[in-house]
């Protein structure tokens, strides 16, 4: 009898709790306590989740950013000028997510997944949360495949592997976005999916990037996520996380993805604005103390997965702006410590017209060398060592000291290396052509080329390679073979004849 009564009592209590829980979800309301500059404090949401979306009147959308006992901090994702203290908010019971899938290829969207390209709605119903945990260490595979940028100065001296995080940093107007754009263009026929995430940029700059992607035929394999400088700080804050979730969907299905964050300096400023308005305690240099954490949890999501977990990769190229070349500032230092290397662009090289303006002394790749094509390795090592010595020797030679024959030869070789590393924008170079040019440089073939004939000399080498050695092109790029000494000598002999015929050498 007692057991039966106990069971009936438990049943009544359980039903009452279910009813109470349901009633709470229906009746839970909230009121804006205060509102200012894209943020607000809201009361009455005792069961709200972190990153949950809230809706306000006039279709304004906000996201929960901070939680406390009696109120929550909200960042608005859309314009909230029509709201005021006392207005109510409604829970959506939905954590912020973004649409994913093949339908996004070729589209321009905002971080909420809303189209910005006037091509109609997205034909996908699948979504992923914007904030996701990075893949566990045991799910990750070594970086073993190169991501060719098509830029000789990068593929040789600071190579990038698929699944790597390589920082691009430098002052304003030094060509950071140009490097990322050329890298995306070079993925046209590689099967790599590109995602360009514009954070806090001018709309005209983003439109120019999109126009270039369309002009060079890579937009069909690219997704552009835009949070412009005119958008709310909250929208700029979520943009890189949304773009990463889109990339992770492809990565989990065995695809290789390249994602460009342009740029994380603007992202840090947006987060600082949000944090100070929500009274988050600031860290040194007036930035919130957890600025390192927001970037580390973003960039840790880039990796190369083991085959049993999808086998895809997500390669990150975050961009950071420096001031007066100060790479030891707060934000650059933080991101340098998170990434696997950096490509530093020098203002002085840019002003001299040496493009891309990559400072090889301050640029490094901590992972990509392991994934570099074998044909590069035997050629690039001597080139890099020689070039670093040349820069010091060139500074000494400026004093006008009389130089011996060996020093003059070293200077000529160094100038040839520097000229070879220069490259115009929108013209990425295939790997086999780069290897051929490095071989010619290493062997001294280009030491006597006239200064105004280096471009012509490289064109002659590329043409000779394609016409006379098509099998070596396949061996270098597809079969990833290293050139034998006999093959190298055959190439050198052919290039020498072609260069002499092309009349590119100085006339003594």
Could you describe the 3D structure shown?
- This protein has 508 residues and is of the alpha/beta class.
- It folds into 3 domains: 26-94, Elongation Factor Tu (Ef-tu), domain 3, CATH 2.40.30; 98-372, Rossmann fold, CATH 3.40.50; 375-502, ATP synthase alpha/beta chain, C-terminal domain (Lysin).
- The protein has 15 helices and 16 strands.
- It has helices spanning 2-27, 152-157, 176-185, 203-215, 233-251, 264-277, 291-299, 330-338, 347-351, 374-397, 405-421, 431-442, 454-468, 470-477, 485-502, and strands at 30-36, 39-43, 52-55, 61-67, 71-76, 88-95, 97-99, 108-109, 127-129, 167-170, 193-199, 222-227, 256-262, 313-321, 341-345, 364-365.
- An 8-stranded mixed sheet has the order 8-12-11-13-14-10-15-16, sandwiched between helices.
- A hairpin with a 5-residue loop joins strand 3 (52-55) and strand 4 (61-67).
- Helix 11 (405-421) packs antiparallel against helix 12 (431-442) and helix 12 crosses helix 14.
- The longest helix has 26 residues, at 2-27.
- The protein is elongated.
- The chain starts with a helix and ends in a 6-residue tail after the last helix.
- Residues 19-27 have low confidence and may be disordered.
């Amino acid at each position: 009898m007692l057991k039966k009564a106990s069971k009936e009592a438990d049943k009544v209590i359980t039903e009452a709790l279910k009813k109470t829980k349901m009633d709470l979800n229906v009746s839970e309301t909230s009121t804006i306590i205060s509102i200012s500059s894209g943020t607000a404090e809201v009361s009455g949401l005792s069961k709200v989740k972190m990153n949950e979306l809230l809706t306000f009147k006039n279709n304004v959308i906000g996201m929960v950013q901070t939680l406390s006992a009696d109120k929550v901090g909200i960042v608005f994702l859309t314009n909230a000028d029509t709201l005021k203290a006392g207005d109510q908010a409604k829970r959506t019971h939905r954590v912020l997510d973004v649409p994913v899938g093949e339908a996004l290829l070729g589209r321009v969207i905002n971080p909420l997944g809303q189209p910005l390209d006037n091509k109609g709605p997205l034909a996908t119903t699948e979504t992923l949360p914007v904030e996701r945990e990075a893949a566990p260490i045991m799910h990750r595979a070594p970086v073993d495949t190169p991501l060719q940028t098509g830029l000789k100065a990068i593929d040789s001296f600071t190579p990038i592997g698929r699944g790597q995080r390589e920082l691009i940093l430098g002052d304003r107007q030094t060509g950071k976005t140009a490097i990322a754009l050329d890298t995306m263009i070079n993925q046209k026929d590689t099967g790599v999916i590109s995602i360009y995430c514009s954070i806090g940029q001018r709309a005209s700059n983003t439109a120019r990037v999109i126009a270039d992607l369309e002009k060079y035929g890579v937009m069909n394999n690219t997704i552009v996520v835009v949070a412009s400088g005119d958008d709310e700080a909250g929208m700029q804050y979520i943009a890189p996380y949304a773009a990463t979730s889109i990339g992770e969907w492809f990565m989990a299905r065995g695809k290789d993805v390249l994602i460009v964050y342009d740029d994380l300096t603007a992202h840090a400023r947006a987060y600082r604005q949000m944090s100070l308005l929500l009274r988050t305690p600031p860290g040194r240099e007036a930035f919130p103390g957890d600025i390192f954490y927001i970037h580390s949890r973003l960039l840790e999501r880039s990796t190369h997965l083991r085959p049993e977990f999808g086998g895809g990769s997500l390669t990150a190229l975050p961009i950071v702006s420096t001031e007066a070349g100060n790479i030891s500032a707060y934000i650059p230092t933080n991101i340098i410590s998170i990434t696997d290397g950096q490509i530093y662009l020098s203002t002085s090289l840019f002003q001299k017209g040496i493009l891309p303006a990559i400072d090889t002394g301050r640029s490094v790749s901590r992972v990509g060398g392991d994934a570099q094509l074998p044909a590069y390795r035997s050629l690039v090592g001597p080139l890099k060592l020689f070039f670093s010595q040349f820069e010091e020797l060139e500074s000494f030679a400026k004093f006008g000291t009389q130089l011996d024959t060996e020093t003059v030869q070293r200077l000529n070789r160094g100038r040839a290396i520097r000229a070879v590393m220069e490259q115009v924008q929108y013209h990425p170079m295939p790997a086999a052509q780069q290897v051929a040019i490095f071989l010619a440089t290493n062997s001294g073939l280009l030491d006597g080329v006239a200064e105004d004939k280096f471009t012509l000399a490289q064109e002659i080498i590329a043409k000779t390679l394609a016409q006379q050695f098509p099998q070596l092109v396949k061996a270098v790029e597809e079969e990833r073979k290293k050139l034998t000494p006999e093959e190298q000598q055959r190439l050198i002999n052919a290039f020498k004849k072609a260069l002499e015929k092309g009349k590119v050498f100085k006339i003594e």
